[in-house]
Amino acid sequence: MLGLRAIIKSAILVFITLGILACGSEPEIKNDYSYIKHLPAKAHDAYARGDGILLFSFRKNIQDSEAYADWAEYLNNFNSTSNSDIVISKASKGFITSLNITSPEFSIFLKKGQQSYFYDGLIVEPQVYTAVYRKYSGEDLSNIDRSFLPQTFCQSQLSSLVLTKNCVED
Amino acid sequence: MGWKNTRKSPPKYLVKDLQEDLKSVGVFISTANGVFGPKTEKALKLFQWVCAKMTHCLKDKKHYSRVKTTKILIDGSLNLDTYNELTQWIKDKKEVTGDLIRISFSDLSNIEASPNFKKISSAKVFKSELVISKSAKKLISDINNKAKNESVTIKVNQAFREKSVKLTGAVVTPAKKSQHLVGHAIDCNIVDGDNWNNSTSFKNKKETEGAKKLITALKKQDYRWGGDFTPIDSPDFDLKLDHTTFSYEAKFFLNQRMISLNHEIRKEKI
Question: Engineering a disulfide at B45: which of B76, B83, B130, B244 sits with its beta carbon 3.0 to 4.6 angstroms away?
Fold first, then answer.
């Protein structure tokens, strides 16, 4: 009788332990870099060279909005002042589909070996570009810069756009 | 349209001469060809708008105060009032200009240039000054006063914006219409203590109390806040000038021309 009780107790303990372990473990993330093949040629080359790239998307029917006006102004200014250190390009449909991005307007910053950033919506503050540029250039970031950095994510997790903090790619 | 007999008719006036005169005062930018087409009509309407609405023009390249000609019709046709006004402008060697003004940041207790603030290209403007339409001067004054009340600081990224002429470095098409292009808007962040209220703060509803109160106070004064726009543009405050109106078109032409021709820009205090 005592032996049976001990066996049941052990079985319950094992069951609970396994349950805790199952709940606490991360779901398996598949390292899927297939989106790379959807990068526009110049962005692909830049990425391969180790340069930073910025991919953006927007709907054409917002071109009369104030947000579009501000976004276009600051993006063009950034492009003319970033000395080609960051290659800027429109994200292809294939790229958006491969990542299952549903936001109509977004920006993605990628650089090999660096944190990647996803900005949901139109960037209407030039400080966002400055912060990422400084980060990718290895400069020290001020507290203000840090407050403007977009959300980070792992490129290996791009297929599901799982946004995680402090993820640095190999 | 054009040579319409509205009110009293003007004396004989060759279209080519009219075009040359409109060119002299700065509203006709095409080649005088002697044909009264849409460009001549628009130039005439622009001149009439300036006569009716503007309190300044240029005389010998300097700002010159003038009294508005309220009786003038803004319809693009040549009538006696317009003729008289135009001949007087030619005689006085006057030229149209915009209503942009310079305001020194040092005159503003709670408004500063952000580290990303970019001076406009005009040599008449200093790095320490923001440029805005005279009509939107009160917007700046009200933002400054409300910011003072809430003990917050406004960090300006941009106010008046130059229309991109040469698209070197442009990756996307610049907007054709914006309140910034007429000098009626300001892009800024509300800094409350050490907190920079930026787009992410508003998106995550983590803006500070000071920022909330400032926005509420400004909206009560009928200014627009970009956080209410679609798509959202939370750093933006403006005094709306409907971009479908001729007033917008006129102001756009005059203020952009004011910068491209390096006109004098008056400095004003708040």
Answer: B76
List CB contacts (< 8 A) between B167 and chain A. 76
Write out pLDDT tens, residues B187-215: 999 999 999 999 999 999 999 999 999 99
ipTM of the complex: 0.93
Q: pTM for the whole thing?
A: 0.88
The CA distance from B53 to the nearest CA of chain A, in Å, is: 26
Domain range enclosing A80? 29-160
Q: Which of B270, B266, B262 is nearest to B101 (CA)?
A: B266
* Distance of residue B56 Cα from the nearest chain A Cα, in angstroms: 29
What is residue A98's predicted lDDT score, i.e. its pLDDT?
Answer: 78
CATH code of residue A139: 3.40.30.10
What domains sit in chain B, N to C, each tagged with a CATH number? 15-95 (no CATH), 100-267 (3.30.1380)
A170 in any annotated domain: no
> Does A123 map to a domain?
yes
Q: How many structural domains comprise chain A? A: 1
- Name which of A72, A121, A124 is nearest B173 (Cβ-Cβ): A72
Question: With an 8 Å Cβ cutoff, are B175 and A148 in contact?
Answer: no
pLDDT in tens, B97-144: 999 999 999 999 999 999 999 899 999 999 999 999 999 999 999 999
Within a domain: A165: no
Chain A residues within 8 A of B243 when measuring between CB atoms:
64
Identity of the residue in B175, B181, B226 whose CB atom sits nearest the CB atom of A63 = B175
Strand order in the sheet with B56-59: B62-65, B56-59, B94-95
